[in-house]
Amino acid sequence: AYALKIAIRRYIEASNADPKPFVWTKTADDILDSVKRFCQRTSNSPH
Q1: What pTM value is reported for the model?
Q2: What top-level branch of life does the organism fall under (predicted)?
């Protein structure tokens, strides 16, 4: 668990060294359609 924490901290530090703004690449409707398809696939799956 300690090694994981160290790895995460190193990743964050490297990302923060050269930050990039987050840019949406899909519309809200595209995202909601994707969620809807996922829910339809998984709601009828046997568990």
Answers
A1: 0.46
A2: Bacteria
Give me 45's structure tokens.
């799956």
Structural domain range at position 18: 2-43
Q: What does DSSP assign to residue 9?
A: H
Write out pLDDT tens, residues 6-40. 999 999 999 999 998 888 899 999 999 999 999 99
C-alpha distance from residue 20 to each of 12, 26, 27 (Å): 13, 18, 20
Distance from chain centroid for Cα 27: 16
Q: How many domains does the chain have?
A: 1
Tokens at 1, concatenated: 């668990």
End-to-end CA distance of the chain: 30
